[in-house]
Each structure stands twice: as structure tokens, then as C-alpha cells.
Known about the structure:
mainly beta; globular; disordered N terminus
Amino acid sequence: MKYLLTALFTIATVAPIESHGSPGYYICQVSSDAHIKNSGALDLLRNSPRIGEKFSVNKKTGAVAGDIFDALNTPQLIARGSDQNSFKVLWIQKSAGKNGAFVDYLSIEEFVKGKKKPFGFFSGGLLMTGSCE
């Protein structure tokens, strides 16, 4: 039974990645990956395995599905987006150390005209960008 539930959960979370035009989900693809160097400059990772990766975002809950977001739980949907504002999701998780926290942020520019909407994902010193439909 445990394996059946695992299989059903996997199908439910991965299936939206392959669907196109679903009004309840964004389908996103990473086009650039970078991190902040100690100097403060942005370092583009040209051969990153994340470039080309796809993920889906549930428009009602902010939940994400896809390999690059496996560790993100309990999304906080901050804004649903509109013709004037971005879709925004925030994740806050406690770190192992005292008074520490991990904060991740996804912004999809819903207001951009056309099917493709640019996104930015920020996690500590990591920045990924791309587009969603």
C-alpha cells in the first residue's frame, strides 16, 4: 500500500510538468543559473545541470513539483499575480543553527503580455531565471 501511495503521489506531482495549457498550473523552464560570489558579483553557471530543467507551480497553492524543488515544503502564496502584479511564493524553513532560517522566493511576472512569463527564483546566494507558461 505504501508503494501504491508513493506511485500515485509521484504521478500527481510530475504529470502537471508535462501538461501544457493547464489553467491551474504554470509550466516553467530554467534558462539561467547563477550564484553570488564572495565579491558580490553574479557568477553565471554556464554548464549548470539545472538549465533546461522543468517544474510546475500550482497557481492556487504555490506548491512546486520538479527535481530542482524537491526540498521545498509549505509554500506561502503571497500574491496570485494579475495584469499589474507578479505571482509570488515564499518558503521559510528553520535551519539547524540557532536563530537561522532558509528563505526561498519565487516570482513569476504574470503581468507580462503573451504566453511566456519570466520568473526569478532566489535561494540564499542562488538565482535561477527562465520562463513559465
